From TrEMBL:
Sequence segments annotated as region (Disordered): 1-31
Source organism superkingdom: Eukaryota
The organism of origin for this protein: Engystomops pustulosus
PANTHER family: NANOR-RELATED, ZGC:195170
Pfam family, one: P2RX7_C
Phylogenetic lineage: Eukaryota, Metazoa, Chordata, Craniata, Vertebrata
Protein's name in the database: P2X purinoreceptor 7 intracellular domain-containing protein
P2X purinoreceptor 7 intracellular domain residues: 36-175
């Protein structure tokens, strides 16, 4: 059993088990970009349907409405984030977030650390967003480990997308937009 968007599901899907349909092990790259978004239960989260198409669940006043309930989480609701807030109303006000997720020169250097070659111009901002999500996740959650994607608050997603927008500026539904959920991008 796994917890997916705060619901238990059976783990009988070969794709989720780490084994490809033909019985072969998946590559490390595939493992880093799981198809199922696994988020730990947080006791402070309101029921999922109350989170769609509104931001009434937001406590920092910076979150935006995102298309799925698992993406709709505020920085003040994630336990590991609370110690980093240090009296701030939102994690996006923290100097470390500003440095690693908003300063284009620093984000570009980090992009060069994780890629061997520059991305095509059409993919640059998407790659920069991915680097920001990775930096944020490493700062808050530490090593990626084997637990799967960690939640990235809607306020962080909003600030990163605003700073490094999609060329088409389409972020309406992750299945049809340029970006999957931020927590998955951090694992790609």
């Amino acid at each position: 059993m796994k917890i997916v968007a705060n619901k238990e599901i059976e783990d009988n899907d070969a794709e989720m088990s780490g084994t490809a349909p033909d019985g072969q092990e998946q590559s490390e790259a595939e493992d880093l970009c799981p198809s199922t978004h696994i988020i730990p239960k947080e006791s402070s989260l309101t029921p999922a349907p109350a989170r769609l198409m509104n931001t009434t669940w937001c406590k920092c006043a910076t979150c935006v409405s995102l298309p799925t309930e698992m993406e709709s989480v505020c920085c003040q609701e994630i336990e590991k984030l609370k110690s980093h807030l240090q009296g701030r109303s939102c994690i996006t006000e923290h100097p470390i977030f500003q440095l690693y997720c908003q300063r284009e020169d620093v984000v570009n250097i980090n992009l060069r650390l994780v890629r061997r070659f520059p991305p095509p111009a059409s993919e640059l901002n998407k790659c920069l967003r991915r680097v920001c999500y990775r930096a944020f996740s490493a700062w808050i959650h530490g090593y990626r480990g084997e637990e799967g994607p960690k939640p990235i608050p809607a306020c962080v997603v909003h600030k990163v997308r605003s700073r490094f927008p999609s060329l088409q500026n389409v972020f309406t539904n992750f299945r049809f937009s340029c970006d999957p959920p931020a927590e998955d991008m951090a694992w790609e």
